[in-house]
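Researcher: I'd like a structural prediction for the single chain below. Treat it as a standalone chain; there are no partners to consider.
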Amino acid sequence: MKAQCPLCNDALYLNSSCTLCEGTRVVDRDLYDRFYALAQKLRNETQIPHQYFEIDSLVLYNVSLSGDPDRFQEYAVYKRREDGNITKVESITVNAPSTRVSTLAGLLMSINKQPLSDFTDQIRAYRDQLTAEEFEAFKKRFAFFAAAY
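Model: Treating it as a single chain, here is the predicted structure.
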């Protein structure tokens, strides 16, 4: 089942060469629904610091210093490599007033679809990368943090 491409159909996103739909103006409905649900959660609900979400090849990590809903919520976007390691490829503000849920979903889908090699200019430091083991250890520590928060 297909859905309209959220980037091609957004007047704020003027890109004639859309990497998400590759000019077809449609995307997979199931995948879009999953990304849209996450985008809606990120856009409309303030998450605790260090909250993370995994979806397809992406890991989104809340780097905001505050859970205040009146402040911008920033997320580091990591892309999972074939070996399970993750690399930071982008930083996004998920609750800016001009950010529509569909645009956020489309942006995340586009990052998900692009190969890691497209982001070599954004990969700056060792701290932008975690091994699969380091990420698993983080998830365990986060579970304790979230329970105590």
